[in-house]
Amino acid sequence: MMSVTQIHQKLEKGYADIEKGNVEDAASAFVAFREALMKQYKVEITKEALQDMEDIYNYIAIDLLARIMQWGNIIALLMKYLH
Fold first, then answer.
1. H helix runs in 1-83, sequence order
2. How far apart are CA 68 and CA 70, in angstroms?
3. Which pLDDT does position 70 carry in this prediction?
4. Which pLDDT score, from 0 to 100, does residue 69 have?
5. Does residue 74 register a pLDDT over 90?
6. What is the sign of the dihedral through the CA atoms of 75, 81, 82 and 83?
7. Which of 7, 40, 45, 80 has a Cα at 20 to 30 A from 53?
8. What DSSP state is assigned to residue 39?
9. What residues contact 2, with CB distance under 8 A and at least 6 apart?
10. Does the pTM of the predicted model rise above 0.90?
């Protein structure tokens, strides 16, 4: 299990990758993952685990992105008024 510090380090690396454009379409990534690994193993996911994944996706796609956009707007306003 990762520590809180390790999680934050992973998130920071992810943010940096996003800024650099080092991203891949999620649908394509999951197709590649499924083709590479899922054919080798039988993988079953509980309904609770699936719900957890959906909750994580929603947090990232909706809540976290909204906060990032808010900070971007705040920074843009500060830059405008500080120059």
1. 4-20, 26-33, 47-58, 65-82
2. 5
3. 78
4. 78
5. no
6. positive
7. 40
8. T
9. 10
10. no
Q: State how far the Cα of 32 lies from the Cα of 43, in Å rounded to an integer.
A: 15
Task: Note the pLDDT tens digit of each residue in 27-62.
Answer: 888 888 878 877 777 778 899 999 998 888 888 878
Q: Report whether 2 contacts 10 (CB < 8 A).
A: yes
Contact 17, 23 (CB under 8 A): yes
Q: How many CA atoms lie within 13 A of 25 on its CB side?
A: 4
CA dihedral 49, 52, 54, 55 (to 10 degrees): 170
Say how far apart CA 79 and CA 71 lie, in whole Å.
12
Between CA 67 and CA 74, with CA 72 as vertex, the angle to 5 degrees is: 95
For residue 42, with 0-12 CB atoms within 10 Å meaning exposed, 13-18 middle and 19 or more buried, which class applies?
Answer: exposed
